[in-house]
Specification:
The protein is mostly helical. It has helices spanning 2-32, 37-49, 51-62, 66-82, 86-92, 98-122, 127-147, 165-180, 191-208, 210-213, 217-249, 253-265, 267-278, 282-307, 314-329, 343-367; strands spanning 94-95, 124-125, 310-311, 340-341.
């Protein structure tokens, strides 16, 4: 059990650093083609911060843990809107862009309803349904890119998703992983251990040089490649550890995905929201959360279903999808306030998520 917790910690750290590297590289590449900050927030940054969800859900589906794959998405999306937006609003106050409220929030609600409808028709998502979701994502991104392309605004500073110290933390953790020989299923250190360590060490060097080489094309491409590699390796560790703990404690994989895994994979969204709000970039803080949720529903679940059909548990239809739809519609209320999210409102959003999570865990333990 202790080794499983260690795998979760290592996996989360690797996902965090991998997402950081991917976002840095992808954002730099987007700037090169003159994409505006708002669209970067809705697409590049949003998709980059959702990369951990994609890696975890796809791997979980392929490894025969569909409840973990679905729970990860249906737990991440409420966290993104209630906490990754609510906490920055509670600390700094926040004004959501009216364009995002009127255009992108309804798309997020429609994406939730689409997943609900397609899954209800067949008690889950098959390859055809997954392909339809991915196609919907492509159409949305094309619409955004055609409607908003501004080179003059593209030089606006975008927030680093994680501090430079993360690189050192990851290297220490993953080097310890290699040193102690954290066992795999075979009982001996495997490629996962070595891969995590080498990727983390390389990313530390990349982070140290980021300030000086941030505008270089080769550095941006390297950041994207290394970020993707670390996301894949980290997701393997996280899925393995979470599945083992769920089995050992008698907790369903769905609840583990809705809570522990969802919060861990949503850490980049929370960090992005806090840094954006602190720097007065509300359009990035809010757009990142909304864009990430759309990507999670259409891209993450869609791609996972294309690779391996995903059955849905009954609780997803009766509890989690209705909750997700309600949370997806919540930002429309802020149209009445001109997009303003006051500090008390932000605090209430965070408390709402905490209350739901507490109820979820209590209900699971009470029924065990």
């Amino acid at each position: 059990m202790l080794l499983s917790f260690a795998l979760i910690v290592l996996g989360l750290a690797a996902l965090a650093q991998g997402g950081d590297s991917l976002i840095d590289g992808a954002t730099g590449l987007a700037r090169r083609v003159g994409v505006s900050p708002l669209v970067i927030g809705l697409t590049v940054v949003a998709f980059g911060t959702s990369a951990p969800e994609l890696a975890v859900s796809v791997l979980a589906a392929l490894n025969g843990a569909p409840a973990l794959a679905v729970g990860n998405v249906l737990g991440s999306n409420p966290f993104n809107l209630l906490v990754a937006v609510g906490l920055p609003a509670a600390i700094y106050g926040l004004t959501a862009p009216k364009l995002t409220l009127r255009r992108d929030v309804p798309v997020g609600a429609l994406a939730t309803a689409l997943v609900w409808g397609l899954a209800s028709a067949g008690d889950g998502l098959g390859r055809l349904e997954g392909a339809l979701l991915v196609f919907g994502l492509v159409i949305w991104v094309m619409f955004l890119l055609r409607g908003d392309r501004s080179g003059s605004a593209a030089e606006e500073e975008l927030p680093d998703q994680l501090s430079e110290s993360w690189g050192a933390v990851v290297m220490i953790l993953l080097t310890a992983n290699l040193a102690i020989g954290l066992p795999q299923s075979s009982g001996a250190p495997g490629p996962l251990n070595h891969g995590l360590t080498m990727a983390a060490a390389t990313l530390c060097v990349l982070n140290a040089r980021r300030a000086g080489a941030g505008q270089r094309l080769d550095a941006q491409l390297l950041a994207v490649g290394l970020g993707l590699a670390l996301l894949i390796l980290g997701s393997k560790a996280l899925v393995s550890g979470a599945s083992t703990i769920a089995l050992g404690l008698g907790i369903s994989e769905a609840v583990v995905g809705l809570t522990v895994v969802a919060v861990g994979t949503s850490a980049p969204e929370l960090t992005a929201g806090l840094l954006s709000a602190r720097r007065g970039q509300a359009e990035l803080a809010f757009g990142n959360a909304v864009g990430s949720n759309i990507f999670n529903l259409l891209g993450v679940l869609g791609l996972a279903a294309v690779l391996h059909p995903i059955p849905f548990e009954t609780r997803f239809f009766t509890v989690d999808l209705p909750l997700n739809l309600g949370v997806a519609l919540l930002p429309l209320v802020f149209l009445a306030t001109g997009g303003r999210l006051s500090r008390p409102v932000g605090g209430l959003m965070v408390l709402a998520w905490a209350g739901w999570t507490a109820w979820l865990v209590a209900a699971e333990l009470g029924g065990a």
